[in-house]
Design goal:
With 293 residues, the protein is of the alpha+beta class. 19% of the residues lie in helices and 33% in strands.
């Protein structure tokens, strides 16, 4: 999928679905460290993305020296949000990267709770050789850790773009094989799908191959967390299934997640949702205020 990362002193973002070299790239290279011009520059970039149907994805929104600082960013202009960035970097104490990743997950849930459909994605952000480790890390920083799984008919740039736009995505770590089946009544749906208003139940089945951690599976419905039963088929294969009765609300969202024995991040599925909701949050600054950062 053609794209580019835009890096400035006020934050980093990926632009997915480019069909040409944007004119603003030269200005980013020249003024990327100039706080006085960056607010207007970011505004022009998001306007350009909207006009050209390019997906705008915020990278590591709360991470150390590279956190997102352009508070006036309109949430309506955000297509994707990186919720976990190179988890091996969490070993670097000064960066507080684990806390930054957890905040990003909270932000994603908060946006869905406010009626936005912004696709959560993962980012390997690997800058090291396979034999290089961050201070205190026991695992190398490699591409595909975490992994972002997209649901599409076949692999093409157009379908990758469509899957991201429609939030048909899951993020995993320590999971080598992953299958999820979702049905709203009799209709097959995917992570990120809107549920038919007449649907009464969600049937689900999740099968994974995971190591070295044994996963705990859970469900989030409108922010309420419930642990789900998952069976161990052997040392590495796990399976869970069930039926969820849908709330009688005008708007709600639900997603699945998994964590290791010590809370290690293992899975985040983009929510399925029903209905619409009037937004109470409008800018990135509004989100920071609610999160207390």
């Amino acid at each position: 999928l053609p794209g580019v990362e835009v890096t400035t002193a006020m934050g980093h973002a990926n632009l997915f679905g480019l069909r040409e070299r944007p004119d603003f790239i030269n200005e980013v290279l020249e003024q990327g460290g100039n706080d006085k011009v960056l607010p207007e520059l970011w505004k022009s970039i998001t306007e350009w993305c909207r006009k050209n149907e390019v997906l705008f994805s915020i990278n590591h929104p709360f991470l150390y020296e590279w956190k997102w600082l352009y508070n006036e960013l309109l949430l309506d202009d955000v297509s994707c949000l990186e919720i976990i960035n190179d988890p091996t970097y969490e070993s670097v104490e000064i960066a507080h990267a684990h806390e930054a990743n957890e905040l990003a997950v909270r932000m994603a849930d908060l946006l869905w709770a406010d009626g936005y459909q912004i696709c959560a994605v993962g980012g390997s952000d690997s800058h090291n050789r396979i034999d290089e480790f961050y201070e205190g890390a026991t695992e190398p920083s490699i591409a595909g850790d975490p992994a972002t799984w997209l649901f599409m008919e076949n692999l093409s740039a157009r379908n990758v773009y469509g899957a991201l736009r429609n939030c048909h995505a899951c993020i995993t770590r320590y999971i080598d094989e992953f299958e999820i089946e979702l049905f709203a009544d009799e209709e097959e749906i995917y992570p990120g799908s809107e549920i038919n208003r007449d649907a009464n139940i969600i049937s689900w089945k999740i099968s994974i191959k995971a190591k070295p951690y044994k996963p705990t599976l859970f469900l989030m419905i409108d922010g309420e967390k419930t642990e789900l039963l998952i069976k161990s088929m052997d040392d590495v294969h796990y399976e869970g299934s069930g039926v969820i009765s849908l709330p009688n609300e005008k708007y709600y969202w639900l997603r699945f997640g998994a964590a290791g024995e010590n809370g290690e991040f293992m899975m985040y599925t983009n929510p399925i949702f029903k209905g619409t909701k009037k937004h109470s949050l409008h800018t990135f600054g509004d989100v920071k205020e609610i999160l207390g950062v």
